[in-house]
Amino acid sequence: MTDFHHAAKDGLSKADFEAVLRQVGAERYHNQHPFHHRMTSGALSKAEMQAWALNRYCYQAVIPRKDALILARAEDPAFRAAWRKRIEDHDGEDGWSGGIARWVHLATSFGLDAEAVKSENLALPATRFAVGAYLSFCANRTLLEAVASSLTEMFSPLIIGERVQAMLAKYEYVTEDTLAYFRVRPDQASRDADHALAYVLGHADTPERQQQAIGALVFKCDVLWAMLDALQHAYGAPGNIPPGAFRPDAA
Q: Measured between alpha carbons, how far is residue 135 from residues 63, 131, 201 in Å?
């Protein structure tokens, strides 16, 4: 695996810099994770699918909060105008008519209780720690790094395509309605990724800033990978569910 921690030490052209960012995704994005491979092969139990939906909600719910942090730090009105669409996509006009609500619908379609999902009380400790680390990163690192961490959206249409096709084909309880969240998400992610990539390519104008941006994307890939590690450890065989976390037999 490539050592991205030193990839930009001599400075890169914009084309080479973008190539490195895309290589980060090719090597580290969580479509490479064994849990994802088990999902797309049809090998996950319904309990594992429920656990995935419940834990992933924590990540979905924090997205507009991290985007609000980024908005508050941005001085360019044009940047803010483009970035605030992300919050509208997830929260909707009333807080519960956007992507987060559609994710709750996905979870309840799997047989989970909506209030239990939204409370996040049954999420794995590692999930909460990973999501908290992402929020803290966007609050405390440079604006460039916060924006660069969102570049995982360059790769999300690929993983969404793999998930949707597999879930519809291999899990009899999954329908098109179940997966309403994914209907609009690829187009939103592509729009957002194009905007964020243009910003990063334009503002990472020194070797140091390029390295910061690469490191931010590596960090975000690690967050998503760690969440699947936790699911695999807790709900894959033989199962190591920590105290207080979701237990399928109690759902």
A: 8, 6, 23
